[in-house]
Design goal:
Length: 382
Protein backbone atom coordinates (compact mmCIF):
# COMPACT_ATOMS: atom_id res chain seq x y z
CA UNK A 1 0.00 0.00 0.00
CA UNK A 2 1.00 3.64 -0.37
CA UNK A 3 -0.02 6.78 1.37
CA UNK A 4 -1.46 9.58 -0.78
CA UNK A 5 0.20 12.87 0.17
CA UNK A 6 -2.90 14.77 -0.88
CA UNK A 7 -5.25 13.53 1.82
CA UNK A 8 -3.31 10.89 3.75
CA UNK A 9 -5.56 8.10 2.52
CA UNK A 10 -3.91 4.70 2.00
CA UNK A 11 -4.30 3.12 -1.44
CA UNK A 12 -3.05 0.00 -3.16
CA UNK A 13 -0.27 1.17 -5.49
CA UNK A 14 -1.31 -1.25 -8.18
CA UNK A 15 -4.75 0.29 -8.58
CA UNK A 16 -4.62 3.14 -11.10
CA UNK A 17 -7.87 5.01 -11.20
CA UNK A 18 -9.75 7.89 -9.70
CA UNK A 19 -8.00 8.71 -6.42
CA UNK A 20 -6.56 12.19 -5.72
CA UNK A 21 -3.18 11.08 -7.06
CA UNK A 22 -4.48 8.83 -9.79
CA UNK A 23 -5.06 5.77 -7.61
CA UNK A 24 -8.33 4.01 -6.98
CA UNK A 25 -9.13 2.98 -3.44
CA UNK A 26 -9.83 -0.73 -3.01
CA UNK A 27 -11.36 -2.45 0.00
CA UNK A 28 -9.03 -3.18 2.93
CA UNK A 29 -6.73 -6.20 2.41
CA UNK A 30 -9.20 -9.02 2.22
CA UNK A 31 -6.61 -11.42 3.69
CA UNK A 32 -7.76 -10.06 7.04
CA UNK A 33 -11.32 -11.02 6.28
CA UNK A 34 -10.30 -14.62 5.78
CA UNK A 35 -8.67 -14.70 9.22
CA UNK A 36 -11.74 -13.49 11.06
CA UNK A 37 -14.45 -15.37 9.24
CA UNK A 38 -16.33 -17.94 11.22
CA UNK A 39 -15.06 -20.80 9.07
CA UNK A 40 -11.67 -21.90 7.82
CA UNK A 41 -10.53 -20.68 4.40
CA UNK A 42 -9.91 -24.33 3.63
CA UNK A 43 -13.07 -26.07 2.48
CA UNK A 44 -14.66 -28.09 5.24
CA UNK A 45 -14.10 -31.79 4.44
CA UNK A 46 -17.01 -32.72 6.65
CA UNK A 47 -16.88 -33.99 10.21
CA UNK A 48 -13.15 -33.48 10.63
CA UNK A 49 -11.86 -34.31 14.08
CA UNK A 50 -9.07 -32.53 15.89
CA UNK A 51 -6.43 -34.97 14.64
CA UNK A 52 -7.37 -34.31 11.03
CA UNK A 53 -7.41 -30.57 11.64
CA UNK A 54 -3.93 -30.84 13.14
CA UNK A 55 -2.69 -32.81 10.11
CA UNK A 56 -4.11 -30.19 7.75
CA UNK A 57 -2.40 -27.40 9.64
CA UNK A 58 0.90 -29.26 9.50
CA UNK A 59 0.45 -29.80 5.78
CA UNK A 60 -0.11 -26.08 5.22
CA UNK A 61 2.94 -25.21 7.32
CA UNK A 62 5.12 -27.56 5.26
CA UNK A 63 4.04 -26.02 1.95
CA UNK A 64 4.56 -22.24 1.99
CA UNK A 65 1.93 -20.71 -0.28
CA UNK A 66 4.34 -18.27 -1.92
CA UNK A 67 6.80 -21.03 -2.82
CA UNK A 68 3.98 -23.19 -4.17
CA UNK A 69 2.74 -20.36 -6.37
CA UNK A 70 6.23 -19.62 -7.68
CA UNK A 71 6.74 -23.31 -8.54
CA UNK A 72 3.69 -22.89 -10.76
CA UNK A 73 5.24 -19.85 -12.49
CA UNK A 74 3.43 -17.12 -10.55
CA UNK A 75 5.40 -13.86 -10.84
CA UNK A 76 5.02 -11.79 -7.65
CA UNK A 77 6.10 -8.28 -6.80
CA UNK A 78 6.16 -6.78 -3.34
CA UNK A 79 3.20 -4.82 -2.03
CA UNK A 80 3.50 -2.98 1.25
CA UNK A 81 5.39 -5.02 3.83
CA UNK A 82 8.10 -7.57 3.11
CA UNK A 83 5.57 -10.37 3.55
CA UNK A 84 2.96 -9.03 1.12
CA UNK A 85 2.99 -9.80 -2.60
CA UNK A 86 0.72 -9.28 -5.56
CA UNK A 87 0.51 -10.41 -9.16
CA UNK A 88 -1.82 -11.58 -11.88
CA UNK A 89 -4.36 -14.10 -10.69
CA UNK A 90 -3.57 -17.70 -11.72
CA UNK A 91 -7.24 -18.61 -11.35
CA UNK A 92 -8.69 -16.31 -13.98
CA UNK A 93 -7.56 -14.13 -16.87
CA UNK A 94 -6.82 -10.52 -16.04
CA UNK A 95 -4.70 -7.70 -17.40
CA UNK A 96 -3.97 -5.93 -14.10
CA UNK A 97 -2.71 -7.64 -10.96
CA UNK A 98 -5.30 -8.21 -8.26
CA UNK A 99 -4.05 -11.46 -6.66
CA UNK A 100 -2.78 -10.68 -3.18
CA UNK A 101 -0.63 -13.01 -1.03
CA UNK A 102 0.47 -12.64 2.57
CA UNK A 103 3.43 -14.97 2.94
CA UNK A 104 3.47 -14.69 6.73
CA UNK A 105 -0.18 -15.67 7.10
CA UNK A 106 0.11 -18.19 4.19
CA UNK A 107 -3.12 -16.85 2.68
CA UNK A 108 -4.22 -15.41 -0.66
CA UNK A 109 -7.11 -13.35 -1.94
CA UNK A 110 -7.98 -12.20 -5.46
CA UNK A 111 -9.85 -8.89 -5.71
CA UNK A 112 -10.76 -9.77 -9.28
CA UNK A 113 -12.54 -13.11 -8.86
CA UNK A 114 -13.22 -12.88 -5.14
CA UNK A 115 -11.61 -16.19 -4.26
CA UNK A 116 -9.17 -16.68 -1.42
CA UNK A 117 -7.90 -19.02 1.24
CA UNK A 118 -4.84 -21.11 2.08
CA UNK A 119 -2.54 -23.30 0.02
CA UNK A 120 -4.99 -26.22 0.09
CA UNK A 121 -7.81 -24.03 -1.19
CA UNK A 122 -5.59 -22.60 -3.92
CA UNK A 123 -4.43 -26.03 -5.07
CA UNK A 124 -8.04 -27.23 -5.12
CA UNK A 125 -9.10 -24.34 -7.34
CA UNK A 126 -5.96 -24.40 -9.50
CA UNK A 127 -5.99 -28.18 -10.08
CA UNK A 128 -9.79 -28.48 -10.11
CA UNK A 129 -9.77 -31.38 -7.66
CA UNK A 130 -12.08 -32.43 -4.82
CA UNK A 131 -10.88 -31.56 -1.32
CA UNK A 132 -9.59 -34.99 -0.32
CA UNK A 133 -7.79 -35.53 -3.64
CA UNK A 134 -6.21 -32.09 -3.26
CA UNK A 135 -4.86 -33.02 0.17
CA UNK A 136 -3.55 -36.33 -1.17
CA UNK A 137 -1.89 -34.53 -4.09
CA UNK A 138 -0.12 -32.07 -1.79
CA UNK A 139 1.01 -34.85 0.53
CA UNK A 140 2.41 -36.70 -2.49
CA UNK A 141 4.37 -33.60 -3.46
CA UNK A 142 6.03 -33.62 -0.05
CA UNK A 143 7.23 -37.18 -0.44
CA UNK A 144 10.82 -37.23 -1.67
CA UNK A 145 10.88 -38.57 -5.20
CA UNK A 146 13.42 -41.26 -5.94
CA UNK A 147 16.18 -40.37 -8.41
CA UNK A 148 14.66 -42.90 -10.80
CA UNK A 149 11.29 -41.12 -10.73
CA UNK A 150 12.97 -37.79 -11.41
CA UNK A 151 15.04 -39.23 -14.26
CA UNK A 152 11.87 -40.79 -15.69
CA UNK A 153 10.18 -37.39 -15.73
CA UNK A 154 13.23 -35.84 -17.41
CA UNK A 155 13.43 -38.62 -20.01
CA UNK A 156 9.72 -38.31 -20.81
CA UNK A 157 10.13 -34.56 -21.25
CA UNK A 158 13.09 -35.03 -23.58
CA UNK A 159 11.15 -37.55 -25.65
CA UNK A 160 8.44 -34.94 -26.21
CA UNK A 161 11.05 -32.44 -27.39
CA UNK A 162 12.58 -34.73 -30.02
CA UNK A 163 10.15 -33.99 -32.85
CA UNK A 164 9.74 -30.35 -31.91
CA UNK A 165 13.29 -29.50 -32.93
CA UNK A 166 14.22 -30.17 -36.57
CA UNK A 167 17.95 -30.14 -35.76
CA UNK A 168 17.41 -33.24 -33.59
CA UNK A 169 15.56 -35.28 -36.20
CA UNK A 170 18.05 -34.20 -38.86
CA UNK A 171 20.88 -35.43 -36.65
CA UNK A 172 19.21 -38.82 -36.20
CA UNK A 173 18.76 -39.09 -39.96
CA UNK A 174 22.39 -38.22 -40.50
CA UNK A 175 23.33 -41.03 -38.13
CA UNK A 176 21.17 -43.41 -40.16
CA UNK A 177 18.49 -43.82 -37.50
CA UNK A 178 15.09 -43.58 -39.19
CA UNK A 179 12.89 -46.35 -37.73
CA UNK A 180 10.29 -44.68 -35.46
CA UNK A 181 9.70 -47.95 -33.60
CA UNK A 182 13.38 -48.26 -32.63
CA UNK A 183 13.53 -44.59 -31.62
CA UNK A 184 10.49 -45.06 -29.40
CA UNK A 185 11.67 -48.38 -27.97
CA UNK A 186 15.02 -46.92 -26.97
CA UNK A 187 13.30 -43.89 -25.46
CA UNK A 188 15.43 -41.49 -27.48
CA UNK A 189 14.78 -37.81 -26.80
CA UNK A 190 16.34 -34.41 -27.26
CA UNK A 191 17.57 -31.80 -24.79
CA UNK A 192 17.45 -28.35 -26.41
CA UNK A 193 18.68 -26.81 -23.17
CA UNK A 194 17.15 -24.15 -20.98
CA UNK A 195 13.69 -25.63 -20.46
CA UNK A 196 14.00 -28.77 -18.29
CA UNK A 197 14.38 -26.95 -14.98
CA UNK A 198 11.16 -24.95 -15.43
CA UNK A 199 9.30 -28.08 -16.49
CA UNK A 200 10.39 -30.08 -13.43
CA UNK A 201 9.83 -27.12 -11.11
CA UNK A 202 6.27 -27.04 -12.42
CA UNK A 203 5.98 -30.65 -11.25
CA UNK A 204 7.07 -29.49 -7.77
CA UNK A 205 10.61 -30.87 -7.84
CA UNK A 206 12.80 -28.57 -5.71
CA UNK A 207 16.05 -27.04 -6.93
CA UNK A 208 18.25 -29.06 -4.58
CA UNK A 209 16.75 -32.36 -5.83
CA UNK A 210 17.51 -31.42 -9.45
CA UNK A 211 21.02 -30.42 -8.40
CA UNK A 212 21.62 -33.67 -6.49
CA UNK A 213 20.51 -35.72 -9.48
CA UNK A 214 22.84 -33.77 -11.77
CA UNK A 215 20.10 -32.56 -14.12
CA UNK A 216 21.08 -28.95 -13.46
CA UNK A 217 24.34 -27.35 -12.35
CA UNK A 218 24.96 -25.02 -9.42
CA UNK A 219 24.05 -22.01 -11.59
CA UNK A 220 20.66 -23.58 -12.32
CA UNK A 221 21.42 -24.37 -15.96
CA UNK A 222 20.32 -27.63 -17.57
CA UNK A 223 23.08 -30.25 -17.63
CA UNK A 224 22.15 -31.30 -21.18
CA UNK A 225 22.06 -28.76 -23.99
CA UNK A 226 21.67 -29.62 -27.69
CA UNK A 227 22.11 -33.31 -27.03
CA UNK A 228 20.27 -36.43 -28.16
CA UNK A 229 19.27 -38.29 -25.01
CA UNK A 230 19.25 -42.03 -24.33
CA UNK A 231 17.84 -43.23 -20.96
CA UNK A 232 19.97 -45.94 -19.35
CA UNK A 233 17.79 -48.49 -17.55
CA UNK A 234 18.44 -51.28 -15.10
CA UNK A 235 15.76 -53.65 -13.80
CA UNK A 236 13.13 -51.51 -15.48
CA UNK A 237 14.23 -48.24 -13.83
CA UNK A 238 16.19 -45.35 -15.31
CA UNK A 239 19.56 -45.03 -13.56
CA UNK A 240 21.24 -42.44 -15.81
CA UNK A 241 20.87 -40.38 -18.95
CA UNK A 242 23.38 -40.28 -21.79
CA UNK A 243 23.58 -37.21 -24.00
CA UNK A 244 25.26 -37.11 -27.42
CA UNK A 245 26.12 -33.59 -28.55
CA UNK A 246 24.82 -32.55 -31.96
CA UNK A 247 27.04 -29.44 -31.93
CA UNK A 248 30.62 -28.54 -31.05
CA UNK A 249 30.51 -29.53 -27.37
CA UNK A 250 32.30 -32.60 -26.04
CA UNK A 251 30.46 -35.50 -27.73
CA UNK A 252 29.60 -37.69 -24.75
CA UNK A 253 27.97 -36.84 -21.45
CA UNK A 254 26.52 -38.88 -18.62
CA UNK A 255 25.07 -37.58 -15.39
CA UNK A 256 27.50 -37.85 -12.45
CA UNK A 257 26.08 -41.14 -11.25
CA UNK A 258 26.49 -44.83 -12.01
CA UNK A 259 25.89 -45.74 -15.64
CA UNK A 260 24.38 -49.03 -14.50
CA UNK A 261 24.81 -52.34 -16.25
CA UNK A 262 25.03 -53.20 -19.93
CA UNK A 263 22.56 -51.19 -21.98
CA UNK A 264 19.17 -52.86 -22.57
CA UNK A 265 20.50 -56.04 -20.92
CA UNK A 266 17.02 -57.28 -20.00
CA UNK A 267 16.22 -57.70 -23.71
CA UNK A 268 19.63 -59.19 -24.61
CA UNK A 269 20.43 -61.50 -21.71
CA UNK A 270 18.68 -64.55 -23.21
CA UNK A 271 20.97 -64.66 -26.25
CA UNK A 272 23.86 -67.13 -26.25
CA UNK A 273 25.76 -64.93 -28.73
CA UNK A 274 26.00 -61.26 -27.76
CA UNK A 275 27.35 -58.38 -29.84
CA UNK A 276 29.14 -55.78 -27.70
CA UNK A 277 29.64 -52.25 -29.07
CA UNK A 278 31.06 -49.00 -27.68
CA UNK A 279 28.34 -46.46 -28.33
CA UNK A 280 24.59 -46.18 -28.25
CA UNK A 281 24.29 -45.08 -31.87
CA UNK A 282 26.19 -48.26 -32.75
CA UNK A 283 23.60 -50.23 -30.81
CA UNK A 284 20.67 -48.33 -32.33
CA UNK A 285 21.80 -48.88 -35.91
CA UNK A 286 22.38 -52.60 -35.30
CA UNK A 287 18.97 -53.01 -33.68
CA UNK A 288 17.48 -51.24 -36.68
CA UNK A 289 19.31 -53.71 -38.97
CA UNK A 290 17.86 -56.66 -37.03
CA UNK A 291 20.78 -57.53 -34.71
CA UNK A 292 18.75 -57.44 -31.50
CA UNK A 293 21.40 -59.35 -29.57
CA UNK A 294 23.49 -56.15 -29.38
CA UNK A 295 24.35 -54.44 -26.09
CA UNK A 296 26.60 -51.55 -25.16
CA UNK A 297 28.96 -50.79 -22.30
CA UNK A 298 29.04 -47.01 -22.98
CA UNK A 299 32.76 -47.15 -23.66
CA UNK A 300 35.43 -49.80 -23.91
CA UNK A 301 35.97 -50.41 -20.20
CA UNK A 302 33.55 -52.87 -18.60
CA UNK A 303 32.69 -52.59 -14.92
CA UNK A 304 32.74 -55.70 -12.74
CA UNK A 305 28.94 -55.70 -12.79
CA UNK A 306 28.87 -55.61 -16.59
CA UNK A 307 31.41 -58.42 -16.80
CA UNK A 308 29.27 -60.48 -14.44
CA UNK A 309 26.27 -59.92 -16.73
CA UNK A 310 28.14 -61.35 -19.71
CA UNK A 311 29.16 -64.36 -17.59
CA UNK A 312 25.65 -65.13 -16.31
CA UNK A 313 25.00 -67.75 -19.01
CA UNK A 314 27.42 -70.70 -19.42
CA UNK A 315 28.77 -71.08 -22.93
CA UNK A 316 27.92 -67.53 -24.01
CA UNK A 317 30.03 -66.04 -26.80
CA UNK A 318 30.71 -62.30 -27.06
CA UNK A 319 31.49 -60.60 -30.38
CA UNK A 320 33.40 -57.36 -29.69
CA UNK A 321 32.74 -54.71 -32.35
CA UNK A 322 34.65 -51.61 -31.26
CA UNK A 323 35.70 -48.65 -33.37
CA UNK A 324 38.42 -49.16 -35.97
CA UNK A 325 40.36 -46.05 -34.94
CA UNK A 326 43.20 -44.49 -36.87
CA UNK A 327 45.25 -44.44 -33.66
CA UNK A 328 44.38 -48.12 -32.99
CA UNK A 329 42.82 -47.26 -29.61
CA UNK A 330 39.66 -49.24 -30.37
CA UNK A 331 41.64 -52.22 -31.65
CA UNK A 332 43.81 -52.32 -28.53
CA UNK A 333 40.76 -52.01 -26.29
CA UNK A 334 39.12 -54.89 -28.16
CA UNK A 335 42.13 -57.14 -27.65
CA UNK A 336 42.46 -56.29 -23.95
CA UNK A 337 38.77 -56.91 -23.34
CA UNK A 338 38.85 -60.21 -25.23
CA UNK A 339 41.68 -61.42 -22.99
CA UNK A 340 39.76 -60.28 -19.91
CA UNK A 341 36.64 -62.12 -21.03
CA UNK A 342 38.63 -65.24 -21.82
CA UNK A 343 40.19 -65.22 -18.32
CA UNK A 344 36.63 -65.00 -16.91
CA UNK A 345 35.62 -68.11 -18.87
CA UNK A 346 33.70 -66.24 -21.57
CA UNK A 347 34.31 -67.00 -25.24
CA UNK A 348 35.19 -63.85 -27.15
CA UNK A 349 35.94 -62.87 -30.72
CA UNK A 350 36.95 -59.56 -32.30
CA UNK A 351 34.96 -58.30 -35.28
CA UNK A 352 36.85 -56.07 -37.69
CA UNK A 353 35.01 -53.55 -39.83
CA UNK A 354 36.43 -51.46 -42.63
CA UNK A 355 39.24 -49.18 -41.53
CA UNK A 356 38.07 -46.04 -39.75
CA UNK A 357 34.53 -47.26 -39.17
CA UNK A 358 32.39 -48.05 -36.16
CA UNK A 359 29.12 -49.99 -36.60
CA UNK A 360 27.13 -46.79 -37.01
CA UNK A 361 29.34 -45.21 -39.66
CA UNK A 362 29.67 -48.61 -41.37
CA UNK A 363 25.93 -48.75 -42.05
CA UNK A 364 25.65 -45.03 -42.82
CA UNK A 365 28.35 -45.55 -45.47
CA UNK A 366 26.05 -48.06 -47.20
CA UNK A 367 26.77 -51.43 -45.61
CA UNK A 368 23.90 -53.91 -45.31
CA UNK A 369 22.91 -56.48 -42.73
CA UNK A 370 24.44 -59.12 -45.00
CA UNK A 371 27.75 -57.21 -45.02
CA UNK A 372 27.78 -57.07 -41.25
CA UNK A 373 26.94 -60.78 -41.01
CA UNK A 374 29.99 -61.49 -43.16
CA UNK A 375 32.11 -59.49 -40.71
CA UNK A 376 30.72 -61.54 -37.82
CA UNK A 377 31.54 -64.79 -39.63
CA UNK A 378 35.11 -63.63 -40.24
CA UNK A 379 35.61 -62.60 -36.59
CA UNK A 380 38.93 -63.49 -34.96
CA UNK A 381 38.54 -65.96 -32.11
CA UNK A 382 40.92 -65.75 -29.15
Amino acid sequence: MICCHCDGTRYFYFSPGSGPCGFKKLPPPTILAWEYRCFSPTLNPGGENSAMAHDLERLKQRIPLLEYLQRHNWKPCRAGTRQEFLGLCPLHHEARPSFYVNAHKNLFYCHGCGRGGDVIRFAQLFLDLPFRRTVAHLEQELMPASPSQLLQQAAAFYQLQLHRYPEATRYLARRGLCDPAIIEELGIGYAPGGNLRDHLAGLSYPFDRLLDTGLINSQGRDAFCRRVIFPCCQHGRIVNLYGRSIGQAFPHRLLPRSKGGLFAWESVSDFSIVILVEGLFDLAILWQAGFRNTTCALGTQLTSAQLAQLADQPGRSVCIVFDQDDNLAGQRASHQLALRLKSAGIQACIVQLSHGHDPNSYFVAGATAADFTDCLERAQQL
